[in-house]
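name: query_chain
kind: protein
chains: 1
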Amino acid sequence: MDLTQNTDSTIIIEGQTKEGRKFRPSDWAERMSGALSTFGKDHRIHYSSMLKPLSVNGIKCVAINMSMKEIHPELFNHLMDFAEMNKLNVVNATDTARDSNAA
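structure:
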């Protein structure tokens, strides 16, 4: 699992609802992470270390570095509202790393 550098200051929005259903559309994590992404000279998308898509145990997720709360507060609030409105699980990255290593 590739998380941002400091998992203590990173939260994960999981692409799974609190009821256990897979969230759709399947590219939701990439769409959300695109808010801070850039295109490089290589014509490829480069995700910010503050907001990037990842997969944890086969579930699409978004990793959010908590520094975003200070640097981009409106975007941070939008992401948290999105997670709440869609009943998505929000967990600490440290817990996610521990759970994925327990298998």
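note: Strands lie at 10-17, 38-39, 45-46, 51-56, 59-65, 88-92.
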